[in-house]
Design a protein that fits this description.
This protein has about 80 residues and is mainly alpha-helical. It contains 3 helices and no strands.
Length: about 80
């Protein structure tokens, strides 16, 4: 059985979940008091965190587990 962190979809799903949680924490910790367009709704912050978390975790996954290891060795 594969390690759960070695499969891309599970690793990215963890990133989505963590990003959504951090987006909500950002909304709670840094409330907008002057009528900001992006930070006035918890849904917008959760969505932004979700997308950024998935993007960052997919990027990290590609660094940890490159698809073509032969090309990575030649570039260094």
């Amino acid at each position: 059985m594969k390690n759960i962190l070695q499969t891309e979809k599970y690793f990215t799903a963890i990133g989505y979940a963590l990003g959504a949680i951090l987006g909500y924490v950002y909304y709670i910790q840094f409330p907008c008091t002057t009528g900001c367009a992006l930070r006035n709704s918890p849904f917008v912050n959760i969505l932004m965190g979700l997308l950024l978390g998935g993007l960052v975790f997919q990027f990290i996954f590609e660094i940890i587990n490159p698809k073509n290891k032969k090309d990575v060795k030649n570039n260094h």
